[in-house]
Amino acid sequence: xxxxxxxxxxxxxxxxxxxxxxxxxxxxxxxxxxxxxxxxxxxxxxxxxxxxxxxxxxxxxxxxxxxxxxxxxxxxxxxxxxxxxxxxxxxxxxxxxxxxxxxxxxxxxxxxxxxxxxxxxxxxxxxxxxxxxxxxxxxxxxxxxxxxxxxxxxxxxxxxxxxxxxxxxxxxxxxxxxxxxxxxxxxxxxxxxxxxxxxxxxxxxxxxxxxxxxxxxxxxxxxxxxxxxxxxxxxxxxxxxxxx
Length: 244
What we know:
Radius of gyration: 32 Å
Number of helices: 10
CATH superfamily: Uracil-DNA glycosylase-like domain
Order of helices and strands: HHHEEHHEHEHHEEHH
Strand order of the largest sheet: 1-3-2-4-6-5
Distance between the termini: 115 Å
CATH topology: Uracil-DNA Glycosylase, subunit E
Helix content: 25-40%
Number of domains: 1
Number of strands: 6
């Protein structure tokens, strides 16, 4: 007989078990996979068909009146409410034929409690005066009601903010809308200010239409004074035929 036939399997098995015990192996391993990270007192889940999460979240209808929308927009359900930053409300006359949309509050707007303060605000006031308006005769709103810590509108919520801004325009139903900067232009018109500038463009919504023109933000004009000539052309186009 060979070596295999001379082997005492009982003695070999006992030796192996003794070695495993000394090594700390004291648990029989199942053939089925086991989650060794699960808590010991966890109740095993019963086998059954896996439940799938809904693919699309249920959409909550936005308020259908301007007053109700403003209350909701500056309440705890607004996308920016989770930031913990102060919000800056709309200003001016909601019934004005001219609605102006900025991108976000300036760094000092929260302290002042109004949109477009500081150097950008002073230039904005001069722009309004040049077309025969002041802050009391326009409706000034912001795409983002709180100032992001980065100083830029977060791209991950830009689509939602755009939806809210278009709804805001529809409820206010102004004759014309002035869009300040590329972010606002992209939100309302779906295009950058560079491609949308120089012409009035329709903003369609259920029950009506407004005309919008995109121009440079006062913040940009402070750093690029040469663009003021083009901005003046935009303002002239904005008020052209306004009383027709």
